[in-house]
Amino acid sequence: MKQWWIGILFCMFGIVAVQAQNREPIEVIKKSGGIQFYQNEVRLKMPQIKTILKSNELAYNKFKTAQGARAISNVLSFSGGLLVGWPIGTAISGDKPNWIPAVIGTGIWAFAIPIAISANKQLGLAIDQYNQGIPNTFSQRKPEVHLAVQGDGVGITINF
After folding, report:
1. SS3 letters for 66-80?
2. pTM of the model
3. What pLDDT, in 10s, does the model give residues 52-104?
4. What is the DSSP letter of 1?
């Protein structure tokens, strides 16, 4: 009988713990080096974003589309870079380069750029979809309390 009650207590605490988990929004910050993602002021990497977005099916599907486009863009960019770099390396070494691969590589690069832009837009849409699925309640914001000391006194500031 005692074990039965202990089992019920563990189940109740487990349900309360799962319900108490708070889904926080993901912030998108555009910098000169690309796009960075933050949640609770912690920078997220793609595997972490993937894990977070799995909780929202629509956002996760958009994320997978973005990842596919990003993979295609990366392959094309690498191929184009190789085709551009090979004749340049040949020219630096003093041999006579064949510039046709460089022209083709430049075309491949030009084709990869809009695909990369599309992938970033899809990723932004996935994050927006995820953030829209989070209930917007005041309880998610954590107030910050600071002690302010100035020359003429001491005070407390509370930021919501």
Report:
1. HHHHHHHHHHHHHHH
2. 0.64
3. 999 889 999 999 999 999 999 999 999 999 999 999 999 999 999 999 999 99
4. -
Buried b (16+ CB within 10 A) or exposed e, 104-122: ebeebbeebeebbebbbeb
Domain count of the chain?
Answer: 1
For 100-152, the pLDDT digits (tens) are 999 999 999 999 999 999 999 999 999 999 988 877 654 555 677 777 777 77
Does residue 121 form part of some domain? yes
In a domain, 8, yes or no: no
By residue range, what is the domain housing residue 109? 22-133
Is 149 domain-assigned?
A: no
